Amino acid sequence: MTDQKLPGYRFPLSVMGHAVWLYHRYALSYRDVDELLFERGIEVSCESIRTWCINFSDEFAQNLRHREPRRGSRWHLDEMHVVICGVAHWLWRAVNEHGVVLDVFLQRHRDTSATTSFFQRLLGEYHVPETVCTDKLASYGAAIRELPTLDDVDHQQVISSARCNNLIEQSHRRTRRQERAQLGFRQVRRTQGFLDLHARITNLHGSTRSTIPANDRRFFLRTALRSWRAVVQQVA
């Protein structure tokens, strides 16, 4: 990875990119990342790591998003309750039939307007799916009826615990794990930025923790790490 330094930063991109990757890849605190870097002879403060995560997360997330194939004809949508500074929010999530996260969107409400906004975000990035699978929340059906683009979509509504909706329920678990590691989320804008990059890194490493032969898993891991290094270099 490049050792180029950006103006205003003391450490090279290789170090900053690795710190951001560690923080989003695993359920670590800034202090945990600080100690892992210290073990490698890199002395950096927790505040510096926090600053890197804030300043580079959006650009890294966009670079990863552009590298992802526009695949999948089936969307699974769901929303999870998130408290930020004592205020209730809803994190909307969409994954395709392969479990790949398409988008995450943090909103204050859980109504038709919020659902429509989320669909519009998805349609701005991806082709219209053949099937949309949701839970029984009435806002999904209302939003689909409001959007002419989705007129011919097969809308399947199931209970949240149904097996066909298990892909998105599993995706929620990773967010809960990070939420606990951070002792809760504190600011809406930074939470959105964090979850955007967290979703993209999860997609990048999607095959490295599945039940596949060790050689295949290591191959996918090497490929993912090469892609991450390329994404970091794009910032230069």
UniProtKB/TrEMBL annotation:
NCBIfam families: transpos_IS6 (NF033587)
Protein name as annotated: IS6 family transposase
InterPro entries on file: DDE_dom, IS_Transposase, Transpos_IS6
One of the GO BP terms on file: transposition
Organism domain of life: Bacteria
Organism of this sequence: Deinococcus psychrotolerans
Alphabetical list of Pfam families matching this protein: DDE_Tnp_IS240
GO molecular function, one term: DNA binding
Keywords carried by this UniProt record: DNA recombination, DNA-binding, Transposition
Domain spans labelled DDE: 73-204
